[in-house]
Design a protein that fits this description.
407 residues, alpha+beta, Arc Repressor Mutant, subunit A, 4 domains, four-stranded antiparallel sheet, three-stranded antiparallel sheet, 14 helices, globular
Amino acid sequence: MGGLLDMRKSAVVLQKPSGTVAISVEINAIQRKFYNALLYLAKQELRKNPDKVSFKIPLTKLKSVLDISERDKNNAYYIEKVEELTGKKAKYNILGKDKTIWGIFVLLASVEFTKDERNGTIEVKFEVPEFVRRAMIDPHGIYANINLVVIRGLKSKYSIILYELVKDYVKGESEIPEMSMDKFRELFGIKGKYKLIPMLKQRVLDVAVKELNSNGDIGFTVSYELRKEGRTYTSIKFHVKPKPGKLLRKAPAIDIKDIHERDNLTALLSILPGNCRVKEKVISTILAGLRKYDFDYVKSQVEYVSEILRKQRIRNIAGYLKKAMEDDYAGTAEVDIDIVGEDWKRKLIGKVVSLKGEQGRYEITVINNPDEDDKCLVRLDNVETGEVLWRRISSRKLRALAEHKGW
């Protein structure tokens, strides 16, 4: 299961429920990185099984979200930091962005460690609170797309908080709302600290702003304005602007001013082979998909196309990707396919067949309706390896197979 968290990529995007972004809790940078990684793993598993309540990840995989050497064996310390998350009460949604939820929860409902005596591997088993679990599977929920690879490189916990705040609010024309100094202190976990403004700027604000603005993988710059009434500072306003392309390590080939859209694009391009990431038609196709479909749907199609590219050459990648999104090659909607009343389809679902040019046997799991060429898009799952193939097969051949006449 830990393989779901691959920090070798340029983007590992956590769709984090907005209510868990604006929280008031005192944890350090390591714990924030761990918490995000655990939420990422939980969300991936919940997409497969919404009823799942406990999750597992090897400690070595969890440590990959930290910017440390692979030879770092300070496991006792990291275990302690994870354990402490079960005792950290967080007041969530403190800025009131999501009008439907508010309250207090512990970051982790439970955590358990087991060690394999044969190889010394330590596994982390954990549960997230019911509120968080429900928020992560809510199709109508409010989410922030958080790149865990970017957060991995941030040193200050205040930089992480500010980065997530920007990602939660700055989408299109929206912006971070002005907040009272009390709310700001609550959000940044500094209630009762740095009461002198010069110290607050030096230890918190300037540290976070400088680190974000100097990071070449972040597509925006941040500044702030402290506002006062009389002699007292009463509120703070953050300003966010797209970063000039020359300051970015990996600027897209076309101009995109929407920070949210640009980060989604970066995440999706990172899935494809390197030579595809700079093709303007591929970039335009993905952008068009993001404007028409939701992020998870487009991501599934991009992952499917990337897998196909490992096995065969596609002459028109952008065209193939466009068709994949239009026809759901990845099969994300397969559970919604209605085959009741279609006798020939019902006979074929579950049937195991062999394919020309392919090794092994494949089970027919999905048959879409015939297109204008009278061909059906068919999903076939390898019964031994789980490999998924999609084929366009004429309905005539499929009906013949249903009547045991072969392909």
